[in-house]
Amino acid sequence: MSNSVALIEQQLQSLLNRLAEVERKEVDLVRRLKICIRLCHDLLCSWRHDVVQKGFPDQLSEIYFFKQAKPQVAARYRYYQRVLQLDLGGWKGIWNQEQRLMKEMTYIEHVFDQYRSLWEYCQSGAVHLDEAWFVRGHEHWLLHAGTGHFDERFSTLCDGQLAELLAAEMYSQYIGRRLSGDEDLVVAKRTPVGVDVIVYTGSVTLATALGYAMCEVNSFNHGQASRNGVMQHLGKQWGVDLRNHRQTINRLIGQQEPDRPIKDLLDGFNRFLDSKDF
What we know:
The chain is an all-alpha fold. It has two domains: 3-190, no CATH class; 200-278, no CATH class. The protein has helices spanning 3-25, 29-54, 59-89, 97-114, 116-123, 130-133, 159-180, 204-216, 227-238, 245-253, 260-275. Helix 2 (29-54) runs antiparallel to helix 3. It is globular and about 60 Å long. Mean pLDDT is 82; it is low at 144-148 and 185-196.
């Protein structure tokens, strides 16, 4: 790992820790969102300055930045903005709460339909298009519509689209919690000091694959629970929108390694066993 990548990882983790702290402690929703937006904005501005002024030591570092690091921060920036817009003006006019939320789900589905090939590429762990998609110099202005950037010094062909997809996935989980009544409209539920908040932050794909796998080994009601019931239960418990689990599974089946999410879990468990950190 280059020093450049190590520094980026450190800065990214620092931001994620700070965002988690703000979400845990700040009660007022609007204030919480504005703080999180500012934190993401400041890191993106800092990164842009460094990228424009210093560049990258090698192509692998550049690919890491535009495929892994920047999309995570840009996605959260867009996610927090969209939640703020929803809660500042989302309930005006002819829409009632559920109608508006379902309208937002339609937007999310549109995003995944529009960038489906990119999402499947990234979810599969493929790398053969990384140089074309996540290295600067391959931009095409016709393909940037809707990605919200035109800065060729700080953007690649697909990092903005990937950020849009990641933001849509987080937003889908938020809308799912709102529809199920688990997300407060105005304030967050205050957590007692010293109590850790455990939040599922994995992907919808992983949650879906895990749910299906557990159904197959009769993990719920001795095998008598329906798959829809299990997915609804897991979605509510984990704060993830799993209502479209069939579509998610169909996407997995069409990929080169449909069992990749479960393999990643197994690899992680084996690393734990090897570490003997009991």
